[in-house]
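Module 6 notes. Inverse folding takes a fixed backbone as the condition and produces residue identities as the prediction. Think of it as a translation problem where the source language is geometry and the target language is the twenty amino acids. Below is one complete input and output pair. Work through it position by position during the lab.
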């Protein structure tokens, strides 16, 4: 997820030799200018990570706890919650972004207080911050609005979310074949039949 972002290639390689021939043109490359300033002053600032971005967003907190299932598995009054594990997903509503935090309990069982973790799995990509709402937003922007992934990454960065182009491509490459498999098979049946 923390792969460096690739910059779009400037396709305009022709020099401008029009009416500005007598004047000096001044072009400032802000990205390399910032890098040079950092080199003079010492350390360059590390770009923020997606995990850092998730910490800055508003939160919705959910507790994933099924008391009946725990009573059935470990016995009634034979377990207690020792502590909680956190699992974060990047969520999107119509306008604001927020971090959904799901807590899953670590259960202490019996008089020996053996600890058991209730497993949590992201329904889309395990151990990932991807959610169905953010994936729907990415696919809508790409296939309906025609917005390339690098421009989506720039837009997320302007919103304060360090979601890189490579992360977006990885999520889409993993999920789109799974999501569209039934549609693909149905279309193949229509073509063959």
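Target side of the pair, the amino acids:
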């Amino acid at each position: 997820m923390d792969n460096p972002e690739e910059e779009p290639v400037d396709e305009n390689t022709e020099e401008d030799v029009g009416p500005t021939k007598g004047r000096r043109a001044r072009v400032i490359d802000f990205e390399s200018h910032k890098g040079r300033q950092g080199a003079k002053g010492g350390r360059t600032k590390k770009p923020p990570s997606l995990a850092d971005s998730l910490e800055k967003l508003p939160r919705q907190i959910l507790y994933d706890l099924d008391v009946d299932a725990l009573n059935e598995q470990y016995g009634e009054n034979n377990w207690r919650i020792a502590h909680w594990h956190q699992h974060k997903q990047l969520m999107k509503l119509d306008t604001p972004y927020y971090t959904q935090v799901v807590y899953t309990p670590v259960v202490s069982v019996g008089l020996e207080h053996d600890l058991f973790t209730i497993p949590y799995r992201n329904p889309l990509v395990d151990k990932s911050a991807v959610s169905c709402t953010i994936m729907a937003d990415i696919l809508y922007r790409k296939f309906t609005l025609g917005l390339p992934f690098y421009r989506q990454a720039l837009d997320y960065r302007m919103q304060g979310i360090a979601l890189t182009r490579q992360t977006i491509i990885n999520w889409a490459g993993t999920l789109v074949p799974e999501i569209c498999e039934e549609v693909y098979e149905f279309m193949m049946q229509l073509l063959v039949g």
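Reference fact for the lab report: Residues 1-39 have pLDDT under 50 and may be disordered.
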